[in-house]
Amino acid sequence: MDKDAVSYLKTLVETHGSAGFEEQVQAVFRERLEGVCESVETDVLGSVIACLKKNDGPRVLLDGHSDEIGFLVRYIDDKGFLYLATSGGWDEEVMVSQRVYVHTAKGRLPGVLGKKAIHLMDPEERKKKSQIHKLWVDIGATSAEEAKELVEIGDFVTMNAYFEEMVGGRAAAKSFDNRAGIFCVSETLRRVKKDIKAELYGVSAVQEEIGLRGAKTAAFAVNPQVAVALDVTHAFDIPDVDKRKGADICLGKGPVIVRGPNINRKVFRRLVEVAKANEIPYQIAASGGGTGTDANVIQLSREGVATGLIGLPLRYMHNPCEMLQLDDLENSVKLLVAFVESITPEDDWRPV
User: What is the CATH number of domain 71-159?
Assistant: First the structure.
């Protein structure tokens, strides 16, 4: 991956935006595609829909989601401590002692997620799992009045974590879920041949983490014949996980092409075919039902969409130190480019 692409990825993951508050992330995505696409528009929910070029070919949609898991301020106590509601799926143990940002009308405030120190707990308390209503954000305020001058109920909160390259071509950051996905969408639109026979759309969807909401409305608007969703998937190359309960997915072995009822069989086969033809490494994973990704709602849009799903291998999902292999993103873009360039008006995606 070249330096420009890495810099763009770094900007994406270090920008903040949980469900319903994705505007700053979407601004980064839009800027990447302005001058490349014929149109870059934002819908009423906040999803960005970019069209490479109108050409009356089969409409193809590439989708990733822009929101990260986060929190909303729901209560401020009399000492100025902030209590949170989750926005997306959190493990409370991951939250403990993290630095956060509270995003207010007056700007971004730093804070820390507090918990009673182990020295102050009795033996029974030490055995218990952390609970979100017993964790708080400390911004340094000394009273409710001081805190409320700065923070309002409903302000969103995100982790204060940064992008860092690791050994072996890997990187760690918050929100690779799913800024890695919209990275692949935008880079595909930038690299694909302009004379493709498909009418290509790229979507940076909102509110995936709370119910696949932005992809549902964006897919309805685009009305594609074919779509591929991009999202992260668990890498099982870490200690203490049982591959018999998951999959044999590793960092660095390429994008994961998913099979199952949420996936159109011909889209799956075409993805595998173009990967082989272009010597792009890939992995395969099976999902027995709806995948819990935007592919789920895209497949069911209108009269149905021939839908595929590419998983981006990720360690430590929903964590401020998510880790991935940069080459897996590069190979995902190569796979998407080859797939889109293979599509013609004669393709029949019906499973017959």
Answer: 2.40.30.40
Give this prediction's pTM.
Answer: 0.95
Of 230, 237, 182, 198, which is closest to residue 335 (Cα–Cα)? 230
Helices (H), the chain: 3-14, 23-33, 92-95, 123-127, 144-148, 176-191, 213-222, 265-277, 294-299, 326-342
Closest CA to 185 of 32, 342, 315: 32
**DSSP of 15-48:** S--BTT--HHHHHHHHHHHTTTSSEEEE-TTS-E
Q: For the segment 215-229, what is each residue's pLDDT rounded down to a tens digit? A: 999 999 999 999 999
19 Cβ contact list (under 8 Å, min separation 6): 67, 70, 87, 88, 206, 207, 208, 209, 210, 213
Q: Where does CATH 2.40.30.40 sit in the chain? A: 71-159
Q: Does the active-site annotation cover 208?
A: yes
Give per-residue pLDDT as tens, 95-106.
999 999 999 999
Q: What is the DSSP letter of 68?
A: B
Q: Please return the burial class of 94, using the count of CB atoms within 10 Å of its CB with bins 0-12, 13-18 and 19+.
A: middle
The CATH number of 3-68+174-342 is 3.40.630.10
Numbered ranges of CATH 3.40.630.10 in the chain: 3-68+174-342
Q: How far is CA 167 from the centre of its chain?
A: 23
State the catalytic residue, choosing from 199, 208, 330, 341. Answer: 208
Backbone phi, psi, residue 326, to 5°: -60, -35
pLDDT at 165 over 90: yes
Pairing label, strands 59-65, 199-205? parallel
Pair 262, 290: CB distance under 8 Å? yes
